[in-house]
Amino acid sequence: MKNDGYKVVLSSDRTLFSEYHGGIFLGFSACFPSSLINEFLYFNLFCPSIEVEESGAAKFASRSLRLIESKLLEDGFRENEVIVAHPYYLDRVIGSETEILGLSEQDPLGWGPATSTFTNIFGGEAYMAKKFHEILEALSVKKNDPHIMVGGPGSWQLSSKEVREQKGINSIIVGEAEEIVSDVFRDIIRGNGASDVIEGEPTNVNQIPTSVGPTLNGIVEISRGCGRGCSFCPLAKVERRDIPIQQIINDIKTNCKANRHTPILHAEDVLKYKSHQGVNEEAVLNLFKEIKSLPKVNNVDISHFSISSVVGSPELIEKISNLLNLGKNQSFLGGQVGVETASPRLIRKHMKGKLGKNDPEDWPEMVIKAFKVLSKNKWVPAATVLMGLPDERKEDVLKNIELIDKLKNIRSLIVPLSYVGTENGSSFDLSEAPPYYKELFKKCWKHNFKWMESLYRDYSQMYLNGIKSLPTKFVLKFAKHYYRKRLERILK
After folding, report:
1. CATH pick for 206-490 out of 3.30.70.2740, 3.40.50.2300, 3.30.930.10, 3.80.30.20
2. Could you give the strand order of the β-sheet that contains 8-11, starting from the edge strand earlier in sequence?
3. Region(s) of the chain under CATH 3.80.30.20
């Protein structure tokens, strides 16, 4: 341990210090409640820890932690003052000199759509929330009493003063932090304190630092914000900004030095890179070409794309697939996409920005067309469908069920999620919903179980480096059948 601790300690809950065997989207399993899977099995089978240095420093960290670390160092904090630490090693890094414990959290109270969906069905506390609480109760934190600052996508859940006081949290940053974090931290260190709730501002791309250390699974940011204006999503109102290609390449090179040779390009819609309206095919294809040409890059993955971008640029999908040699060097390209509803009425009311130049009545056919384009080109969408949108009616849910039926022969995942109100975290509760919602939920998971085995087979060949042993495969196959039966019993 560094004598008397580091001045600034950055960390997250334990679920955010795993690479999930190389498959970042397995990270959604952190939304599972402890009642669904035993803790020992979960953290050894699904969520093994990344490597930790003797000092307690994490060898890999989330993009958000690396950004804050990089910005602090860029703004004059010294390397011996700041550390990104694994939560199980806080006793090695927190001491009498520690002024700030900065935590980046995705879902600290378990209010997120995926988390609330599973906890409402199975009961129990989600691992994200459980492990966040464990940090706050850690002996070194209690003993040394640093200023606890929480940021990240889930910090809004801690907006209540009562909740913060109950958990011993001093302040939160809601929104982007790069342009304010150094000044806020200096004020705390000087004894001036900080506001309880600090509102971040959209960061100028020139203020987004190059990462000083490798990120989990080699994830790199190519755009930030969305701007589509969906009524239920905080990011939808934040204007999209595109990160310069040279900075993206520099971040990829940092990861390659740490043996992360398959970058995951992160944006709310990767296909919108450098575009104002529609899709800038030349810019997107050039981005993929530049990255794929780097000497140490093997494959390229993405985080998110949109239905309208796929429908508007099917030729681009084909060109990217050919460039990446999908089906051969890389089995498929997966990414998240928001379908959310098959109801033109709800699309018009809540998410017109998803349509591009199309009419709300076209939305169900757009989804089907996009899925067909993706399937033809070896892309696998992991789609979300929301349950309980404001003003949702029975006929809207029946339209969702009809759409799932039409997609049943296209290899994909379709995940039904509870709508969550961002004011107080109240969520749609499937256990108290009318039968047609349960039919939708079962229809989605029947679809997922149909494709799960073939997806797992290809996915494991590409990503799950430490999960290929026969015993592990047996356990996962058993888990698939067990949870399928359990869902069926619960949703009768």
Report:
1. 3.80.30.20
2. 82-84, 8-11, 100-104, 147-151, 171-174, 197-199
3. 206-490
Q: What is the pLDDT of residue 424?
A: 56
First and final C-alpha spacing in the chain: 54
Whether the pLDDT of residue 479 is over 70: the answer is no
In three-state secondary structure terms, 289 is helix
C-alpha to C-alpha distance for 120 and 118, rounded to whole angstroms = 5
| pLDDT tens figures, 268-301 | 999 999 998 889 999 999 999 999 999 999 999 9
d(CA 4, CA 23): 37
Beta bridge partners of 241: 224
- For 300-325, write each residue's pLDDT tens digit: 999 999 999 999 999 999 999 999 99
Topology of the domain comprising 8-199: Rossmann fold (3.40.50)
Alpha-carbon gap, residue 162 to 167, rounded angstroms: 9
CA gyration radius for the chain? 22
Q: Alpha helix (H) ranges present in 168-272?
A: 181-189, 245-257
